[in-house]
Specification:
alpha/beta; Rossmann fold; six-stranded parallel sheet; four-stranded parallel sheet; 15 helices; 13 strands; globular
Length: 370
């Protein structure tokens, strides 16, 4: 079953509803048709080397079998395949740039620290060499400076779909008791895994009744370490790790929560790119406790949808969380304001128009209507 929210639930399903025949090639257990989208299964390689060196060509071969008019890819490992599709097979190609990949290199644990800047520069060079002739889709306008003068560039922000959830909002004061704190996303050190456990420990020490749910995948070594911390510190009764859930299940938990946590550490890409989880929390009326990054401030504090704290300052995180928990009326107001902001401004409807414009201009360069 496809799980990527941007790729499948937003882009693929929206294009299918708009009348396109959509095929998606992804690692999953079996091929099928899901909500009008043709899913072509790839095996899941265990080895990073196999994934980087072999799987792009397996994916390209399977994609070519669909005889598509446009080939749209997301993973940087597919850059060489995108180049081949564009210049050897003469296909129309889109590269969807989700994040600041070159800046991410500066915090990748698998890259030796002294080599991280070198990897970042090398990635930028490879991307510049391999993407000419392709349309580029950026998930954040802060990326535009890096792609100036690169041909056809479109900004398609990763805003949430509305129709699934806007009719299910329950005021925070009417939700589960004791209060539920929830985080959804990859569970890593950089994404705040240890911060959440530290927060839970301090809240318990201060006599708070609460539940915390961490939803999302984690690498084996880090998952073992964080579960070990939860057990050693006696937090098993109040902190749970569910692993990856599908989008519907995860959002059902968010919609029942008191606070949505998004305390990512200040890494280069985190500070510059909006975490979509913030908007998904807001969409269902869940107040957010977020990292105090400037790129996030207008969404959280500007919309009055939550509070912000320095994730490296545990005392500040704890005090801010308790301030929220002690103000039920304030939480209700934050939830209402966040939901209204997403409903009126930060939703997928406007972003899909830009995605559709990209496809229309690729397929009809003369300007003819699809």
């Amino acid at each position: 079953m496809p799980t990527d929210v941007r790729v499948f639930y937003r882009e693929c399903q929206s294009l299918a509803r708009d009348g396109y025949e959509v095929h998606v090639v992804i690692p999953t257990s079996s091929s099928s048709v899901v909500d009008g989208v043709h899913v072509h299964a790839l095996s899941r390689p265990r080895s990073r080397i196999v994934r980087i060196l072999a799987m792009p060509w397996v994916a390209m071969r399977k994609a070519l079998s669909t005889r598509a008019d446009v080939y749209h890819y997301h993973d940087p490992e597919l850059l060489p395949a995108g180049f081949v599709l564009r210049w050897l097979f003469r296909k129309k190609v889109v590269f969807d740039v989700h994040e600041f990949i070159s800046r991410q290199m500066l915090s990748k644990l698998w890259i030796p620290r002294p080599l991280r800047p070198v990897f970042g520069v090398l990635y930028r060079l490879i991307e510049r060499v391999l993407t000419p002739g392709q349309a580029l889709i950026l998930a954040n306008e802060n990326s535009l400076g890096d792609y100036r003068g690169r041909g056809s560039v479109y900004v398609v922000r990763n805003y949430p779909l509305l129709e699934r959830w806007t009719d299910r909002i329950v005021p925070v004061s009417e939700r589960k008791q004791p209060p539920m704190l929830v985080y959804v996303g990859g569970i890593t050190e950089g994404r705040g895994g240890d911060v959440y456990v530290d927060l839970a420990r301090r809240l318990r020490e201060r006599g708070r009744e609460f539940q915390m749910m961490l939803i999302g995948p984690t690498e084996a070594a880090y998952g073992k370490a964080i579960r070990g911390r939860i057990e050693r510190e006696g937090l098993g009764a109040c902190v749970s790790m569910s692993g990856r859930l599908n989008f519907e299940e995860a959002m059902a938990h968010v919609a029942a929560a008191t606070i949505g946590l998004c305390l990512l550490l200040p890494m280069p890409d985190h500070k510059l790119l909006l975490s979509t989880k913030l908007l998904e929390y807001m969409m269902v009326g869940t107040p957010v406790l977020a990292s105090a990054f400037d790129a996030w401030r207008s969404y959280v504090e500007g919309e009055g949808a939550g509070l912000m704290a320095d994730p490296l300052d545990l005392s500040q995180v704890v005090v801010t969380c308790e301030r929220m928990l002690d103000d039920p009326a304030g939480l209700d107001a934050m939830g209402r304001r966040g939901a209204e902001a997403v409903r009126s401004r930060y939703n997928w409807a406007s972003e899909f128009k830009e995605l559709e414009r990209c496809y229309r201009e690729l397929l009809n360069p003369s300007g003819a209507v699809k």
